[in-house]
Design a protein that fits this description.
The protein is an alpha/beta fold. Helices cover 27% and strands 28% of the residues.
Length: 479
């Protein structure tokens, strides 16, 4: 028996999730929506399907190809998008032979299609519609192409079909952000019975391949974790949580009744409740509000601006420790100059914004201040030597943007300024090495913005080499 899958829905009601993709390709409980439909067809014994797509037709074809992965043979055609099922069928170059199954590929259902087919084939009517637990399942068996009524397969139901079969199951129409969020949670909790990826590694936890997660992460409820995820042992899940593939969640983050889509980073101490997270977008499911978070230490899109740019925290601190050991002779020289020059105070201090995260008075995470010490000597390379300790302590990266005060950071209001503000603060960097200390703040900020926009590990190693070369230059030793 042939199957026609209607996957041409535009999905405007699911913006911003459908801004660059279509509803059938949205991830739901570890798989795309259309993949759940294909698995239901395979379970019913159907091996051939024609998919009607639009828009993002090429993306759907690229994702599913000829269907060999599912043991199916898939063909495709395009429509203008959200056409009526009758118009779609009339426009097919090769109309299906009856009887055939026609269903929507942009909804999720858990009823058994093979049970529906077994009962529908006993009825001598033009078309039979499936209902799961009283809800329209958007599945129909057609025996007569000319006389069957396809109205209820459209996104807007217009009238009841001539025959219906009601079976046990569940249907999620995905017609709002709130319903998309709830469908993910229902799938994780088993209220919508789907073939979920991964293995149950602990009570309430299903974990995908090559993911690093811990039983203590689930404090209460259930969690579905995708593949290639990294969760800190101190992360806490409550209620129902769905985590997509390639997600990083940092220490002491708290997640409750939330869906985190693939390639997202959740920062240290971040708390999420009843939300959808996609990259650096936080979507409130209660009112549909979309918040774009510019601070990559809180939320980040790992496909655009990965939070683990540069060396990881452990390696960064280790590099700082090595630098501290190598610089021990310079510490002795700095102490000698302090004795010879006899400044009013041997050291000065300044509060700067570092890379660690803390909660403010309102419980919101923000980058914490640290005390940056400086030697009051005339030799530039010795003046900022104590900041090596901030690298060892994790307040600074070895390579990064120029650290600034919290007051200076709050004055950054333009978009390009906020972009530069996303860069981690560092001991070394293009601004520290190439921009004079008395240069205008705008010039320093532009340098930091350019550094972050063109970041690469190769560039960071180049700055380290430049710093080593600068150590033997005249300007490093003379004011």
């Amino acid at each position: 028996m042939d199957a026609i899958i209607l996957a041409d829905r535009k999905g405007q009601e699911l913006l911003p999730l459908t801004g660059s993709t279509c509803v059938p390709l949205l991830p739901l409980a570890g798989k795309s929506v259309l993949e759940h439909t294909l698995e239901a067809l395979v379970q019913a014994g159907l091996r051939q399907a024609h998919i009607v797509v639009s828009p993002h037709a090429e993306a759907v074809k690229e994702a599913f190809g000829s269907g060999e992965r599912w043991g199916m043979r898939l063909t495709y055609s395009t429509s203008r998008g959200e056409e009526s099922p009758s118009q779609v069928l009339a426009g097919l170059q090769n109309p299906p032979s009856v009887p055939f199954l026609i269903l929507r590929g942009d909804v999720v259902r858990s009823g058994l299609i093979n049970s529906f087919l077994a009962q529908a084939e006993t009825l001598d009517v033009p078309g039979v519609q499936a209902r799961f637990s009283g809800e329209n399942a958007f599945v129909m068996l057609c025996r007569d192409l000319r006389h069957a009524a396809f109205d209820n397969l459209g996104w807007v139901e217009t009238r009841q079909p001539s025959a219906q079969i009601d079976l046990e199951g569940a249907v999620a129409k995905l017609d709002s952000l709130k319903n998309f969020h709830q469908a993910n949670l229902d799938a994780a909790a088993g209220r919508i019975s789907l073939l979920l990826p991964g293995l149950q590694t602990a009570l309430g936890m299903t974990q995908g391949r090559n993911s690093e997660a811990y039983p203590q992460n689930v404090k209460q409820g259930v969690a579905l974790i995708g593949a290639y995820c990294s969760l800190h042992p101190s992360v806490e899940f409550n209620g129902e949580v769905v985590i997509g593939d390639n997600v990083i969640i940092d220490r002491r983050a708290s997640i409750e009744n939330t869906v985190i889509l693939p390639h997202s980073y959740i920062g240290e101490l971040v708390e999420l409740r009843n939300a959808i997270v996609r990259g650096n977008e936080l979507i409130r499911v209660d009112n549909g509000a979309v918040l774009k978070i510019t601070d990559t230490f809180l939320l980040a899109d790992l496909t655009v601006s990965p939070i683990n740019k540069g060396l990881g925290e452990v390696y960064n601190r280790l590099a700082g420790l090595v630098l501290l050991l190598l610089s021990l002779p310079l510490w002795g020289l700095a102490g000698l100059l302090v004795l010879l020059q006899r400044p009013v105070a041997p050291f000065s201090k300044q509060l700067l914004r570092g890379n660690k995260i803390k909660l403010d008075d309102f419980g919101l995470p923000q980058r914490a201040e640290f005390t940056a010490w400086a030697c009051n000597v005339s030799v530039p390379v010795l003046r900022y030597l104590p900041r090596v300790l901030a690298v060892v302590g994790g307040d600074l990266r070895l390579v990064g943007a120029l650290p600034v005060t919290v007051e200076a950071a709050l004055q950054r209001t333009e978009e390009w300024e906020k972009f530069a503000d996303q860069a981690p603060a560092g001991l070394l960097g293009p601004t520290q090495l190439a921009i004079p200390a008395d240069a205008p703040d705008e010039e320093k900020l532009m340098s930091d913005s350019f550094y972050w926009a063109n970041f690469s590990i190769r560039h960071d190693f180049r700055y380290l080499i430049q710093a080593w070369q600068a150590l033997f230059s005249r300007k490093a030793w003379f004011s």
